[in-house]
Amino acid sequence: MSQIAESELIINARGAIYHLDVTPEELATTIITVGDPGRVKEVSKHFDSVEVKREHREFITHTGWLGKKRISVVSTGIGPDNIDIVLNELDALVNIDFATRTIKNNLTSLQILRFGTSGSLQQDIPVDSFVAGTHGLGIDNLLHYYRHDNNDEEKALLQQFVAHTQLDGTFSPYIASAGSSLLKHFVNGFHQGITVTCPGFYGPQGRVLRLGLSNPRLIERLTEFNYGHYRISNFEMETSAIYGLGRLLGHQCLSLNVIVANRVSKQFSKDSGLGVENLIRKGLEIVAGI
Ligand code: R1P
Ligand code: URA
């Protein structure tokens, strides 16, 4: 089996992977990702014990125990480009032998759950409520750098999405579904719907401060879109990249978001910190039992 070169798989002097600065032994197979590095300690404060704390750039990792479950919480920072780093490095930590620099024969499937914040695109999904993304629909471009495919239903949905949103010619959207073994546990207390992932917070999410938009009706078009029983519930900046790369690498992924802004009713949460805390509590309670 061919060795992966030092320039491609970068391992530091501690035996840890380049950006995350985490060694294979320091990572659990159930992983919570959060965008905000400050949110890592808000998750790990609920653990019964924390055995590992690592920090490099925006990537903070705490690994510990919640009951009988070993969990790592990792911050990704903002955006799909950071997810490219985090998902590839998490996978390398479990599926590449660092001593021989070869892919292991027996691959490990990780459970990866995002605890994030998001904007709602539906009037009936109010601020402070929770959404579990059934799909990540990317209007970023990350997945196009990898060989990937969509099934016939996904292709039909994407075709209708492009026609409806009139994003054709500017972007090539992609879609990937949540890990079904995780999604089934997040029904009570969670709205479900398609989570759209954008490559920015302002223009790519239809926000106008001083600049005009190339597609001023984008928000309405996302809100109105439906395909069969699917509709778009919310948007943010990581889910499609997690679902897309997670599926290609064989991991079970689920993105849970608390709604901090409702873009239809134009409301922002009065206490988004409390909303995040509530999502962390509910999410961990369920994860501990899976
Ligand atoms: C934008 O404010 C950030 O918040 C959302 C978006 O996806 C983006 O990362 O998620 P996090 O709160 O997890 O960072
Ligand atoms: N995160 C986003 O990306 N968008 C929002 O509107 C709120 C949180």
From TrEMBL:
Enzyme class at the top of the EC tree: transferase
Catalytic activity reported: uridine + phosphate = alpha-D-ribose 1-phosphate + uracil
Gene3D superfamilies: Nucleoside phosphorylase domain (3.40.50.1580)
Domain Nucleoside phosphorylase, chain residue ranges per copy: 30-263
Domain of life from the UniProt record: Bacteria
Signal sequence segment: none
UniProt cross-references to CDD domains, sorted A to Z: UP_TbUP-like (cd00436)
The enzyme's E.C. designation: 2.4.2.3
Protein name per UniProt: Uridine phosphorylase
Provenance organism: Danxiaibacter flavus
Taxonomy of the source species: Bacteria, Pseudomonadati, Bacteroidota, Chitinophagia, Chitinophagales
